[in-house]
Amino acid sequence: MSNQVTKSENSEVLPPVGNPEIRVIAMPANTNADGRMFGGWLMGMLDQAAGLVAARHALARVVTVAADSITFHAPVLVGDELSLYARLVKVGRTSMKIEVEGWRRVRHELETVKSISGLFTFVAIDEDRRPCRVPPINETRLLSDKADK
Amino acid sequence: MSNQVTKSENSEVLPPVGNPEIRVIAMPANTNADGRMFGGWLMGMLDQAAGLVAARHALARVVTVAADSITFHAPVLVGDELSLYARLVKVGRTSMKIEVEGWRRVRHELETVKSISGLFTFVAIDEDRRPCRVPPINETRLLSDKADK
Amino acid sequence: MSNQVTKSENSEVLPPVGNPEIRVIAMPANTNADGRMFGGWLMGMLDQAAGLVAARHALARVVTVAADSITFHAPVLVGDELSLYARLVKVGRTSMKIEVEGWRRVRHELETVKSISGLFTFVAIDEDRRPCRVPPINETRLLSDKADK
Amino acid sequence: MSNQVTKSENSEVLPPVGNPEIRVIAMPANTNADGRMFGGWLMGMLDQAAGLVAARHALARVVTVAADSITFHAPVLVGDELSLYARLVKVGRTSMKIEVEGWRRVRHELETVKSISGLFTFVAIDEDRRPCRVPPINETRLLSDKADK
Amino acid sequence: MSNQVTKSENSEVLPPVGNPEIRVIAMPANTNADGRMFGGWLMGMLDQAAGLVAARHALARVVTVAADSITFHAPVLVGDELSLYARLVKVGRTSMKIEVEGWRRVRHELETVKSISGLFTFVAIDEDRRPCRVPPINETRLLSDKADK
Amino acid sequence: MSNQVTKSENSEVLPPVGNPEIRVIAMPANTNADGRMFGGWLMGMLDQAAGLVAARHALARVVTVAADSITFHAPVLVGDELSLYARLVKVGRTSMKIEVEGWRRVRHELETVKSISGLFTFVAIDEDRRPCRVPPINETRLLSDKADK
Fold it and tell me: How many Cα atoms are found within 13 Å in the side-chain-facing hemisphere of B35?
């Protein structure tokens, strides 16, 4: 499952093992003036993928507080399948750090290419929007216990 | 892998085994006047998920020619994770039929609910946009051979 | 009026008589990777057109429960005028079946081409979102009584 | 037909006779911070409706050169049906003036309310984007000759 | 500051002095079928710029009631920087008239070109959405007193 | 001018001196499930603002290659004016580092609040999309020489 992803040894060639957190088709509505996918849209996809991992670990609402090391490795083109893989790498009292990678694939081809990556920090919040505690890193409850058997 | 998905016995309770074809967060921009996700947007997600399976089987561009049996089982709400599962169920000379299901999940909860399903027909096309042959149903090349080991 | 449309004898050549339910210009924001109008957007237009007929017949809020026989006859291109015609074909206790057709026209030409069609089922709901009764099929109140004289 | 619309005597109560040029459902994606439909979106709908009349009269591509007397009579709310009626009021050598009105209706009610109006000027252009002549005002070719019988 | 802009003598060559009210990059999502920026989107940008000046003068919520003299001087292309300059030109008891101009610039060039202009009328409203008084024209409070030193 | 911005001493209270690179109204279409502005949209605004500074310095097309230290200081709410200030902080042979800050303001109030900041790296590219040299940091040509007198 995505929150226990171990990267393949050659991360430039193969995407992480496991389910993508987010997978979308890159559409013309999200292009920049260049005809390629807009960086803001790509960063939004990273943010959503990381947020899914954070929310599932915390079993609480989460908010993005920071993003670092965002790297644009290769452009994503209109029509591409874009798969976002994310894994929890560090947990504080109320915060979580999540690594995310986006891999593109031309829909009718087999090759995948790493296109974007980043490191996001989320904080879990309670119903009054105050930070709340999150479980230790090795205690993510698995969707697969319920859903992937 | 998603193009050989076998449904769990109780499809009302558990989503199909395997990777989702498409997985997105339901955003306010795609709501209808009701505040729930717009049916047109949901049908578009089904279409994209089915199209990924079709393009990967045909290893060619594909176009949607028909959609049937689209059923709205339960509304999808803003903020939900929506996962689309699709599998190839029939192959003709140039056409492919794909079953698709969409399952929603509140991001910080574990339960998933089947929300929408349908049956899509695609035709593979060559560079001149003429229909072209597709492989038999049991000969889908696997991404997993390259990428999921 | 649109809810009593009778199809012309050659529906491949001429659009239905009467007002379109929905008429829009196909814009670049709704294209797919192909540069043509995205199937999800087209299905959304069918859904809206059918929903207008349903809501006007029921004089109540309505929700889409199913869609069948969606057929993509011809692509819709950026800049086209797209007119959606819909008519009520069957009424149950709380449900309504509506046939919809979409016809495209290049804005500065006269010819129209049938591009998409489908059959939608809606259910009328009351303020608590429970299904509520709808009038018999021949008792649609006419907007034209008030507005089209 | 819409290009020969004659206004009803009480234009505050009844919309113009004939087909709307544009008819859409007001969606949440086009609201402003107020929760009502954004003025820019409304002006865009006026522009599209006027442009349809201009292009059909000129049987040529057209571009907007000016807009005047845009008046916001009443807000348009999410979920409303919005119908845009337009008629050609003046023709120059290469330019056309078109009056447009937008009328809203709650989808499950019968009453319509005039919400926005304006006067748009278009110029017909040829393939090199140079202004080109348009027919006199009483010589619009009718779609209805082909399509509305 | 933008609410006391004095136009340069040759307004065809140089944009108004002072901060733009709105400045955006023209994105593909807002193009028309022509590949240029859609008139509705451009009018929306004028509306937003004028609204900022009105709200800052009234220190109250404002609503657009009319727009006049909208002129499309030159097309805005995808990728352009578009800067909207606005200034208050007349104040009534509850209403304000604001002149707006939009200037485009290719992002990696220095030349600017006036592309669109218009005159907008806003009314200030109180919390019950009733018109409320606005200060005389020479009494706009300056953001610069707080923020631009 | 924005490319020589010097921060005010108390950057938590006052936005940078000079023109914003980008200034927009936060619209409902760009909210997340929370009703606040989506992080991906905010990062996109930072990217556009930084890109304007980079393109104007290089007088060439530029592409984003990295983003670091993105911090979400305070949420941006629907209807807010959001002003993005950016300044060039470092120049390499073909690359440029740009600091960006986003400040929100309720449209009918005077107070501004710093909401988001980050550090972006761009590379200038020539017509064949190969990296090309950029001028030293103190040689930005000023728009103000042409346009702000």
Answer: 4
Chain B (75-94) residues lying within 8 Å, Cβ to Cβ, of chain A? 81
Q: Which residues 6+ apart lie within 8 Å of D133 measured at CB? A: D93, D94, D124
F2-147: in CATH 3.10.129.10: yes
Positions in chain A whose pLDDT score sits under 50:
1-11, 144-149
Nearest Cα neighbor of B124 from B90, B95, B104 is B95
Q: Is C24 on the interface with E (CB under 8 A)?
A: no
| CATH of the domain spanning E15-136 | 3.10.129.10
> Fold for domain D2-6+15-135?
Thiol Ester Dehydrase; Chain A (3.10.129)
State the Cα–Cα distance between residues A130 and A137, nearest whole angstrom: 21
Other CB atoms within 10 Å distance of the CB of residue B9: 7
Report residue A139 CA to chain centroid gap. 19
Q: For the segment D64-101, what is each residue's pLDDT rounded down to a tens digit? A: 999 999 999 999 999 999 999 999 999 999 999 999 99
Q: What are phi and psi for residue A106, nearest 5 degrees?
A: -65, 130
Helical (H) or strand (E) element with F46: helix F39-58
Q: What is the enclosing helix (H) or strand (E) of C115?
A: strand C112-125
For the domain A2-6+15-134, what is the CATH superfamily, name and number?
Answer: Hotdog Thioesterase (3.10.129.10)
Q: What was the pLDDT predicted at C143? A: 52
| Residue tagged 């056309």 (tokens) | D96
Shortest distance, CA C63 to any CA of chain A (angstroms): 27
Q: Where are the beta strands (DSSP E) in E22-77?
A: 22-25, 61-72
- Extents of the domains making up chain A: 2-6+15-134
Q: Let me know if domain C2-144 sits in CATH 3.10.129.10.
A: yes
CATH code that applies to domain B2-6+13-135: 3.10.129.10
Chains B and F touch (3+ CB pairs under 8 A): yes
State which H helix or E strand residue E45 sits in: helix E39-58
Q: Which of the other chains make 3 or more beta carbon contacts under 8 angstroms with chain A?
A: B, C, E, F
pTM to 2 decimals?
Answer: 0.89
CA distance B130 to chain C (A): 14
Q: How far is A10 from chain C (nearest CA, A)?
A: 30
